[in-house]
Amino acid sequence: MQVSFHIVFGGQCEAAFQFYERALGGKIVNILTYGNSPTTEQVPPEWRGKIVHATFAVGETVLAGTDVLPEKYVRP
What we know:
4 strands; four-stranded mixed beta sheet; alpha+beta
């Protein structure tokens, strides 16, 4: 069985995934910003560098993440 997780961030997804890469020895497989996606016009200009989708893998485990707009983010 393959395990995968999806984590929602309030703007720190890229930094978190870079930390996971260093700390866990995995690899960032995919990282896509809002500015490079079809949703670029749907977010404020200052948010276009944030992550709409990222994937990190360590062994058989896959972690996906995204940054959500501040008004939609609920801190765990």
